[in-house]
Design brief:
The chain is an alpha/beta fold and 334 residues long. The protein folds into 2 domains: 162 residues, 3-Layer(aba) Sandwich (D-Maltodextrin-Binding Protein, domain 2), CATH 3.40.190; 111 residues, D-Maltodextrin-Binding Protein, domain 2 (3-Layer(aba) Sandwich), CATH 3.40.190.10. It contains 9 helices and 11 strands. A 5-stranded mixed beta sheet has the order 9-8-10-7-11, sandwiched between helices. Strand 3 and strand 4 form a beta hairpin. Helix 1 crosses helix 7. It is globular and about 55 Å long. The termini are far apart.
């Protein structure tokens, strides 16, 4: 496995320096209750490349009840015995990102760590490209995915998805919203950036689960110019394109969009346009039903004893909390 390396501090823009994630013990740093952990002097956002797995020591959440008993995972259901390898596309704060020491943190990361703890195994974070993240889990490169994945009909044909969070979709614009993007038709004719493989790109283009109801097609129907969709392989690159003035807006899940604007109000703002709320799921290969059921049981227990909500509160994500009933509704698309 390779060693950790951080990006050079050259573009003094954003939240956390991101480069390749590699082997390192990573215990999440404490964070304020209101928003995800700010950095005193924020280095630039840079693109994170996929890496080998980074072992992460389990870290109990503040106020978490002691785990009464280990939830067993059937033999042969894990890629590596005694480990839970979690694929996550980093950075996507506040759900998954790197701290100042290049350790993976965020609400998704801590939820994964807590699930591993309750299964009696060691969590291992595998930084993955979102566009190929389902292929990674189905090919046995990781055991589960926790990476802000909306539950869609296309995805549940490939994996089973356990609901664990919900979020809307929002647009980040330059501070002051100079182009006046406030309602849906204001997007028409604009250059909009989003991460490849996300439902945001599908929504803009009218592909995947948004076939026949894409935002660009709505512009055509209204006899307005189509949206110029600008996909980027990494979410951080999409945001950098907005910072550099290469696009007019950046489209992402609401917690992520809100995080960037809170961290850098002098550079970014929310447009005020938020689209439909969708459930996000923990993805598990359909062949690994024993692992799926154990993960689901651990998540439900976390929700019931308050550990889950405590994690979300650390990163300002509590508005996206789901119920135990939601978590028990496998492959629920809302």
């Amino acid at each position: 496995m390779r060693s950790l390396r951080t990006a050079a501090a050259a573009i003094a823009v954003l939240v956390i320096t991101v480069s390749a994630c590699t082997t390192a013990a990573a215990t999440p740093s404490p964070a304020p209750a209101s928003v995800a952990p700010p950095v005193a002097s924020a280095p630039p956002v840079a693109s994170a490349t996929p890496s080998t797995a980074a072992s992460v020591a389990p870290s109990p959440s503040a106020g978490a009840a002691a785990v009464a008993s280990i939830i067993p995972v059937p033999s042969g259901q894990l890629v590596f015995a005694g480990k839970l390898v979690i694929c996550s596309d980093i950075p996507y704060p506040p759900q998954e990102f790197f701290d100042a020491n290049a350790n993976p943190i965020g609400s998704d990361i801590e939820i994964g760590q807590e699930i591993a703890k309750r299964l009696g195994v060691t969590p291992v974070i595998q930084n993955s490209v979102f566009d190929t993240i389902i292929a990674a889990v189905t090919a046995g490169k990781c055991d589960i995915i926790i990476s802000a994945q909306n539950i869609t009909s296309a995805r549940i044909k490939q994996v089973d998805m356990i609901p664990y969070f919900q979020a809307g979709q929002s647009f980040v614009v330059a501070a002051g919203n100079p182009l006046g993007i406030k309602v849906q038709n204001d997007l028409c004719g604009k250059k909009i950036a989003a991460e490849t493989g996300t439902t945001e790109v599908d929504y803009l283009q009218g592909t995947g689960g948004y076939k026949g109801q894409g935002l660009s097609a709505a512009c055509t129907k209204a006899k307005l110019p189509v949206i110029n969709v600008k996909p980027f392989g990494k979410d951080s690159d999409a945001l950098l394109a907005l910072q550099a003035g290469q696009v007019d807006a950046y489209f992402a899940d609401s917690p992520v969009a809100g995080y960037y604007t809170v961290q850098h109000p002098d550079q970014f703002a929310l447009s005020g346009l938020t689209l439909g709320v969708a459930l996000e799921g923990i993805s598990v290969p359909q062949s690994n039903t024993g692992l799926r059921d154990a993960v689901q049981q651990a998540l439900v227990a976390m929700i019931n004893d308050g550990t889950y909500l405590n994690i979300l509160k650390k990163y300002g994500d509590e508005s996206g909390a789901v119920t135990a009933a939601d978590a028990m509704s496998l492959n629920k698309t809302q």
